[in-house]
Amino acid sequence: MINSVTLNNGVDMPLLGLGTMQVKDIETILPQAIKLGYRLIDTAANYDNETEVGKGIRASQIDRSQLFITSKLKIQTNGYDGTMKAFNESLERLQLDYLDLYLIHQPYGDVLGEWRALEELYRQGKIKAIGVSNFAPFQLIDLIMHSDVKPAINQVEIHPFYQENRATVYNQRQSVQTEAWAPFGEMLGVLQQLPTLKSIAETHHKTVAQVILRWLLQRNIVAIPRSGDLDHLKANLAIFDFTLSATEMDLIRQLNTHHSTFIDHLTADGTEFLSKVN
Prior knowledge:
The protein is of the alpha/beta class. It is built from twelve helices and ten strands. Helix 4 (about 110-125) links the parallel strand 6 (about 100-105) and strand 7. The protein is globular, with a radius of gyration of 18 Å.
């Protein structure tokens, strides 16, 4: 049984889910993952796999009410009308009547116009919760101060090398749930060789990946590791039967390099690159 967290609008969300970006054969993997116990499924228009995710959901034959499905607005949407169109297209590809969570994928373009559309869709009941992704604290508060509905989620890059402590604390201060994409930073092979993580894993008879997911769980951060390997999917679920000590949590905190392993959202180069993503 996966633990859940209650969002600021009263909606319950699983603390652990499945990311689907670049997961091969997700249509086949997804029913197996759901059978194992996964209920939170994360996709996005920019992943170009919403159709396959929708087919996988239907193939699982699970009641829709038991799932928590997230998708994200295509980055090059830019505005209210574009958002309404993009949302309906995502819903059509997924073959769903509603989404549990819909996010603005990147903090660029006409964010306020896009958020107005999300607010309307939320009021219409087509989305159970709305949120953002990759928003720095100054971008998050700017949105909150100019909106009627506060974001329920801020999904950001978080892993041992890039812990985003400032953003996490600020999210919490604003009652916005933090969610970690890429919880292994696409560097699991490197992380597995670190003496600190290896020692902690051996102490608890767990893998380094399980320790990292447990570390996020104890920080009250939702995690969505992605995998198409059945053994890894099973292992990622086995993190609710042990607890990291305060000392172990502090040792992991010391691994922070404060640098993204992907792209820096706070640089001009990063903004220019992401603003051109189709």
